């Protein structure tokens, strides 16, 4: 069936049997799950057995585009990767910019499902309708960026797009990432390690097919209006100058900048690693994703000193905060260097910064021996990061992520392990931001801000409030932001330039010809959010509300400095906010979706699946 916005084909690449199967895209996936992480959630629920080791051949990696990928509109170069996460043992996903998804679609496929496992290193080549599994012994051991360079050189084609892993993925570091187009990362939840466990070093795509569009004139009209909107925006100019790096000083002023394993939220040397420092000292250019009207990628080069010549796409805010202030680095040059080291090794900079800072705090408290690193000491931190990537010495333990390290070290370490459900908290210290804390607590991949960047709402309505509107707002964001990952396009024009959502509704209709309004699209997002919650419940039938709390540090330790000095989260009021959140979601007091909510969302099959596991779901 020809539909606008879709190539109508999904390919399964079975690495064990070396068979490749192409399937028609089903109506169910198109109408009920739309694309991107919607497909990932449905495929993982339906096809990845409960309880398997994420590194076993039974795990799958879904590489999915969506109907807007490759459309003429700002920010349509996204791809979403989904899998069972080694860090959390449950549903994981992460998206990446650049243009891999566009090439994949133009090569004739909406998604790839990578199954089984290879005995030897391989890369998967998807070129204009053909898929092949190629030998990759010569690539094994290379860095992520280096791998892309070698593949492009070998194929004598610089126009192809690659997803690659580095040594960290090969060595199954639980927070290994995937790199694309030099400097873009699918960073979170460790899917790079899952690819490594399957011995997949890279996936390469190149295509020249047309993507069917239902109404080209309507698409161009809405896209043009959106481009005009973006180019008239003053915020766009500041955004292009510094991208997310403008947030370093903003976070610092708002007592939210992770500092020394989030023991503090204000960093006295924030200016040295800020957007201004980047712009004046290292920035040499910009890089954007496919069709983007507001390219946020900053190309930086260290101009002097020991690291002179180091080039990276970045840093961006999350990186500069987590490996910068959180590890107390005090120069933008050090941040650039460590950023490049992580990118080449294939490590998520958010989790890496968290693990390094946590390790240092544990060492300082006498909880962990054998660590030769300290805050601010970039050389020793680089060595520690390399030990993690190659799983040398203490690095073998650290490679398993903050939660597992803490479980080995005991109760005191668990209190300062800055993670939720196994995923390290991204870069917003939230002791004075209850909505943001709730967003982290209830995020469906572990603690990640991209599902609900609610701290701006805390700032707008009152930092110390725990009012019910905060729960409502977190849910709204969790649906709207998920929608971008389902349509598979960039959310930043909406977040940063306030590009109205009506453009996405109009674009979706023009591209697909499907007459969904915004409320219908948001219903799909709610369906997917509930489905991913149920994947967690299937993996962990014992899961209850205690899993939705941020770490004890935020409840027990007061902020030591800054405008919110003396503040900590109030456990009782957080609990009441969580109650409100569950009520608004149609979940019970333990955080389980009720049967009536699941039926309302068309997820009856989930009820049956959970009841077989004796997960008790209440009716209403
Ligand atoms: S805003 Fe940034 S992440 Fe989004 S599409 Fe543009 S360059 Fe890519």
What does the secondary structure layout of this molecule look like, with pairings?
Elements: E1 9-14, E2 19-24, H1 27-33, H2 36-47, E3 61-64, E4 79-84, E5 91-96, H3 100-106, E6 111-115, E7 122-127, E8 130-135, H4 144-154, E9 161-164, H5 167-170, E10 178-180, E11 184-186, H6 191-197, E12 200-206, H7 216-232, H8 234-242, H9 247-253, H10 275-282, E13 283-287, E14 297-301, E15 311-313, H11 317-324, H12 332-345, H13 349-364, H14 378-390, H15 395-398, H16 402-409, H17 411-415, E16 419-420, E17 423-424, H18 434-442, H19 455-461, H20 468-487, H21 492-497, H22 502-512, H23 518-539, H24 552-556, H25 571-585, H26 595-600, H27 604-612
Parallel strand pairs: 1-6, 7-12
Antiparallel strand pairs: 1-2, 3-4, 3-6, 4-5, 7-8, 9-10, 9-12, 10-11, 13-14, 14-15, 16-17
Helix pairs in contact: 2-20, 2-23, 7-22, 11-12, 11-13, 12-14, 18-20, 20-23, 20-25
The structure holds iron/sulfur cluster.
The strand order across the widest sheet is: 2-1-6-3-4-5
Q: CA-to-CA gap between the ends?
A: 39 Å
Rg, rounded, reads 22 Å
Low-confidence stretches: none
Could you estimate the helical fraction of the residues in percent? Answer: 40-55%
The appropriate CATH architecture of the domain at 9-206 is 4-Layer Sandwich
* Biggest sheet descriptor: 6 strands, mixed
Residue share in β-strands: 5-15%
Silhouette: globular
Bound chemical compounds = iron/sulfur cluster
Number of strands: 17
> Kindly state the mean pLDDT as a whole number?
97
Category from helices, strands and their pairing? alpha+beta
CATH class of the domain at 9-206: Alpha Beta
């Amino acid at each position: 069936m020809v539909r606008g916005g879709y190539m109508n084909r999904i390919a399964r690449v079975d690495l064990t049997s070396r068979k490749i199967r192409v399937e028609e895209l089903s109506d169910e996936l198109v109408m009920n799950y739309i694309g991107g992480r919607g497909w990932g959630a449905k495929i993982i629920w339906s096809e990845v057995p409960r309880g398997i080791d994420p590194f076993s051949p039974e795990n799958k990696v879904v590489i999915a585009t969506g109907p807007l990928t490759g459309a003429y509109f700002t920010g349509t170069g996204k791809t979403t990767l989904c899998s069972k996460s080694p860090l959390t043992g449950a549903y994981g996903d992460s998206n990446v910019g650049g243009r891999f998804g566009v090439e994949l679609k133009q090569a004739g496929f909406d998604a790839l499902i990578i199954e089984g496992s290879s005995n030897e290193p391989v890369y998967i080549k998807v070129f204009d309708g053909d898929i092949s599994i190629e030998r990759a012994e010569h690539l094994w051991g290379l860095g992520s960026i280096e791998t892309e360079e070698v593949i492009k050189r070998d194929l004598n084609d610089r126009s192809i797009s690659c997803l690659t892993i580095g040594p960290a993925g090969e060595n199954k570091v639980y927070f290994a990432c995937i790199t694309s187009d030099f400097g873009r990362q699918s960073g979170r939840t460790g899917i790079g390690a899952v690819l490594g466990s399957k011995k997949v070093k890279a996936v390469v795509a190149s295509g020249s097919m047309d993507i069917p569009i239902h109404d080209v004139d309507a698409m161009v009209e809405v896209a043009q209006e959106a481009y005009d909107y973006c180019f008239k925006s003053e915020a766009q100019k500041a955004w292009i100058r510094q991208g997310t790096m403008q947030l370093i000083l903003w976070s610092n002023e708002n007592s939210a900048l992770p500092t020394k394993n989030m023991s503090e939220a204000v960093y006295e040397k924030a200016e040295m690693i800020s957007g201004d420092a980047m712009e004046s000292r290292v920035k040499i250019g910009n890089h954007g994703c496919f069709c983007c009207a507001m390219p946020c990628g900053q190309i930086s080069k260290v101009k002097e000193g020991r690291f002179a010549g180091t080039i990276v796409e970045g840093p961006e805010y999350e990186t500069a905060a987590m490996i910068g202030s959180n590890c107390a680095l005090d120069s933008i040059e050090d941040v650039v260097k460590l950023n490049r080291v992580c990118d080449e090794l294939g490590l998520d900079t958010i989790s890496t910064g968290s693990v390094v800072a946590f390790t240092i705090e544990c060492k300082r408290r006498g909880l962990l021996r054998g660590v030769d690193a300290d805050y601010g000491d970039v050389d020793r931190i680089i060595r520690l990061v390399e030990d993690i990537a190659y799983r040398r010495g203490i690095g073998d333990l650290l490679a398993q992520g903050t939660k597992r390290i803490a479980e080995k070290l005991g109760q005191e370490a668990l209190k300062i392990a800055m993670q939720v459900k196994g995923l390290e908290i991204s870069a917003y210290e939230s002791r004075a931001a209850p909505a943001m804390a709730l967003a982290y607590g209830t995020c469906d991949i572990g603690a990640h801000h991209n599902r609900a960047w609610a701290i701006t709402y805390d700032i707008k309505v009152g930092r110390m409030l725990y009012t019910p509107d905060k729960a409502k707002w977190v849910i709204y964001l969790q649906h709207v932001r998920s929608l971008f990952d389902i349509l598979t396009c960039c959310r930043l024009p909406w977040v940063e330039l306030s590009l109205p959502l009506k453009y996405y509704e109009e674009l979706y209709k023009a591209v697909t010809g499907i007459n969904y309004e915004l409320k219908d699209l948001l219903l799909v997002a709610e369906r997917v959010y509930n489905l991913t919650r149920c994947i967690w419940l299937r993996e962990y039938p014992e899961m209850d509300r205690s899993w939705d709390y941020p770490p004890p540090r935020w409840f027990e330790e007061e902020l030591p400095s800054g405008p919110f000095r003396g503040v900590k989260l109030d456990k009782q009021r957080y609990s009441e906010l969580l109650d409100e959140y569950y009520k608004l979601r149609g979940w019970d007091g333990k955080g389980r979706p009720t049967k009536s909510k699941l039926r309302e969302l068309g997820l009856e099959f989930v009820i049956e699946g959970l009841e077989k596991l004796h997960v008790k779901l209440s009716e209403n």
